Amino acid sequence: MVHLVLSGPTWFFGFDSMLEIIAGIIALLIVMASTRYARLAKDKRYGALGGGFLLIFLSFISQVVTSFFIYHELKEVALTDSVVDITNMLFIGHAAHVLFFISGLIVLVLWALKITERMQQALTIMLIFTLTIIGITNPFIYNFTALALLVFISAKFFLNAHEQQTPCSWAVLAGFALITLARLAFMLAPLDPYWYVGGHGAQLIGYLMLLGVLVKVLRK
Amino acid sequence: MNDAKKRSRLEIIYDILAAMRDKKAPIVPTHLLYKSNLSHDRLKGYLDELIAKQFIQEVPDKNGKKRYQLTEEGYKFLQGFQQLKEFTKSFGL
Asked: Distance from the CA of B34 to the CA of which of A3, A47, A60, B82 falls in 20 to 30 A?
């Protein structure tokens, strides 16, 4: 007996992948911009920002590819031996998504908190990865870990926006605040599947705000 | 003096490179001191960093005195500076 647990309403299956593709493309654009400015300024900090978003992009891709295969297989087969392949695919894809996403957030947290000491970095990574390994099979732990990391990153963007007082710095803060709230909504999805829809909506708007910032930067 | 305090690291680098670009010839350190509004030690720190990043290079004049001039990388930095500055401010880099 196999249980495929969909986090959202059944009609939303497929739409969530489309929204993740859009968010993933925006994450990739941030990677490209960071790489460009890292080369221009010859500064590792830009590379760290790009590296974090590259891992987040890979997490979206692994999630979308997994969802696509599951959707495709579910249309093809009923409960046959292929179901085992689907569950394996689901686990591997989900594990890749979780590991890439948390790794991306760790890179951004190390950058945001300016943790440059090797020992401190190793300790941070070890503690968070322990939670992540548990989180692969426990969605609550995964979402809670991601939420905590996003709160730290958003706090950094709050301090920056407060200091800079520019529309773009506030937009980055608003974007990350929405991405953080989206994680909270994903945590509440087991209570009501519509939290999952709301979470995806908030996440998409958050990434669109980051896209708006990129467009503003490129117009300079 | 207050304006100098408010300048970001990136803006100071821009001012140094822009002074070299505007001069259109290798520039002497004293002229850079005046243009960049920095102390001798701070300017030296920035110049060392810019040389390490290959944004500028040292070119001795006929008398063997140090002069500095922009490299291709330095020109590229100046061209993309406005975008870089906005990106840096937006993400707090």
From this structure: B82
Region A82-109: mean pLDDT is: 83
Q: How many domains, in total, are found in chain A?
A: 1
Strand partners, B56: B70
Q: Does residue A26 form part of some domain?
A: yes
- The residue among B82 and A78 whose pLDDT is bigger is B82
Range of the domain at A82: 10-218
Set of chain A residues whose Cβ sits within 8 Å of the Cβ of B92? 156-157, 159-161, 163-164, 169, 172
Q: Cβ A37–B90 below 8 Å, yes or no? A: no
Least confident of A2-16, A176-190, B40-54: A2-16
pLDDT beyond 90 at A24: yes
Q: Which of A42, A108, A169 should we substitute to test contact with B (largest number of B Cβ atoms within 10 Å)?
A: A42
pLDDT over threshold 90, residue A129: no
Structural tokens at position B60: 């001795």
A28-64: per-residue pLDDT in tens?
999 999 999 888 888 888 999 999 999 999 999 999 9
Q: Is residue A81 part of a domain?
A: yes
Q: Which residues contact A183 (CB under 8 A, 6 or more apart)?
A: A143, A146, A147, A150, A199
- Cα separation of A67 and A81, whole Å? 19
Any B CB within 8 A of A49 CB = yes
For B2-86, which CATH class? mainly alpha
CATH number at residue A36: 1.20.1070
Number of Cβ atoms within 10 Å of the Cβ of A137: 12
Collapsing DSSP states into helix, strand and coil, what is residue B58? strand
